[in-house]
Amino acid sequence: MGESLTDVEFEAETTLPAPGGQRGAEPRRAAGAPERRGPIGTQQDGRPGPAEGHEAVMLLERARAEVDPVLRAALGSLPGPMRRIARYHFGWERADGTPDEGGSGKAIRPALVLAAAAALGGPEARAEAVRAAAAVELIHNFTLLHDDVMDRDAVRRHRPTAWTVFGDADAILAGDALQALALRLLAQDPHPAARVAAARLADCVVELCAGQHADTAMERRGAGEVTLDEVLAMAEAKTGALLGCACAIGGLYAGAGDADVAALDAFGREAGLAFQLIDDVIGIWGDPSRTGKPVGADLAARKKSLPVVAAFASGTAAAAELAELYARPREKEDLDHIALTVERAGGRDWAQGQAADRMARAMQQLARAVPDPEAAGGLLALAEFVTRRSS
Amino acid sequence: MGESLTDVEFEAETTLPAPGGQRGAEPRRAAGAPERRGPIGTQQDGRPGPAEGHEAVMLLERARAEVDPVLRAALGSLPGPMRRIARYHFGWERADGTPDEGGSGKAIRPALVLAAAAALGGPEARAEAVRAAAAVELIHNFTLLHDDVMDRDAVRRHRPTAWTVFGDADAILAGDALQALALRLLAQDPHPAARVAAARLADCVVELCAGQHADTAMERRGAGEVTLDEVLAMAEAKTGALLGCACAIGGLYAGAGDADVAALDAFGREAGLAFQLIDDVIGIWGDPSRTGKPVGADLAARKKSLPVVAAFASGTAAAAELAELYARPREKEDLDHIALTVERAGGRDWAQGQAADRMARAMQQLARAVPDPEAAGGLLALAEFVTRRSS
Hints:
Two copies of one chain form a homodimer. Helices cover 68% and strands 1% of the residues of chain A.
């Protein structure tokens, strides 16, 4: 499971549907409407619906444009060698120090901070939350730098990971420095919410660490020895926690009360889990021409992804067969056959049902925090964007 | 140089001289008196003078007693696995999770925070700075956990390092969590100085990272290729920065102005450099029965310690001989002969002179920040404690 959870990069389709495309603009559902379950991870054309997709892409682009100057200034304050590693990681420089235009990720987390601030505090709160949004993005990238070292992942955002270029020590140090920069940004932010946001972000770091620990610890166990509860808890800590924290911090900058902040946090967590479930489904049954990974790469790596653990836990005849397939030497494996067995054991249906369920819960939490559907639109669009993928 | 700088654990002699010992109680010099140069690293009996030594030991013990409950509460808030690794690192638990009484270090940095707060703000400021003192100690320990992974150091405080027990990933994660705990402590501190202290501590983390980067980068170069300026700058970043930050934060909690805070920072930095110089002298010429290391361990490891780099840079005939000795295969080396050659090239004298010089500068900065010698006594005692060692 390591990579898909570790990345938590949303490589979703950002191409906008052509004007006048096949699907008419669906009326946007009010936040909190759990009926829209069908499309999660199952839509036929692999594209977001025009309305939501368009809005999400605009929100992401705007967030990236607003947060980038803060990030560049923060990284620019680093001493030379740390700056170089960090800029490389963000895709702004090549290994030789020349400028690069590599993508630095989809800015999902900053977009969630800003959308949550806007939802409860309007444009003013949104503008005031830009620094906090950058802090969240720095924390995300600090964990990516460290996770790549631990997981020995060699590629991130289609480029060699920092540790493969600069070595383990420098990748660890650059990650350490990014965590410090994130908390310095909040310490220097005069906004009254900055202190509480900093404490919340620090708590989230601890949870991210615990999630990564659980992930690496699970790698050493057999897929049949891991319970669904364990793997769900790990996914929540590794993926859900920071999405939840991003939404909560946006709420704090809008002056939201404790209950609304908690609901925003829960919204982000549930949407994060839905994302992870879909990401794991794609990791097994996705189209290799779109995922950029060979068929069944997650299965070949024996990742304890959520559908696989669910299949093992199903108690079916297919589960017993799966255990046998996993016990065989890897050279002889038939990945298509393993994928089919996971499916027959119910792993795929379970994951898609769970994802739909999590998104329904996310919508309920969103409706609690932001009862006005118009105001909730941005957060809704972002949540649907990250979960309505088929590639 | 890795280990002595990385540790920055002050394994100084804490045994108090017997009552009625050989040396009479010297009258304490006023802060800012640079005349007391002789004893730095050269005293005959290897013990601190009764007055300073006694006061420093009391200050360290009191700091440890006050900070420990905050540290234990902070670590207690970690999720299970992270908590276990952190407690092991602090010497509070064995690898099997049973309680241990291992030392968790001398608490020099927390003692400096508290002494600086007391010097400029009296007992009230001192009491208010306990949380900040714990935050500084958490940062120190986060860097130790990470540095040990990078430097592959296997022993710390006479115990196996965390990575040797729990693996690299968990040691990195526990370090990440300690950094987050440190900045959370300050984010949750209602004291008006907490925000500025947090920003300063975050800046210090960046400097510590840059120092560790410089240290690991130097390991890959020959001793003759490293300049004295480089190695001094590295030592200041790795060792001086956090001692300076500790003093500065204490000043901030006492409500000190910018100039006094800057002078306290400079005091801690200079004292830290003096410490490092003495530590490097001890690493070559120290008594193995007291250092716990074999004779010439730093030379055998070809560490680019300050006296060695000074010897290489001396342009003497001995420097040329040293270069020859370093180029030979290590099996044939005569460590006593190398030590003598470093000494003949002036490395030992240079280091001791530099240490005295740095302590003189430290005293000047201290006199600037704390003109009242009585009030400056605690900081003076701590600075002398860490530099007046011969073991």
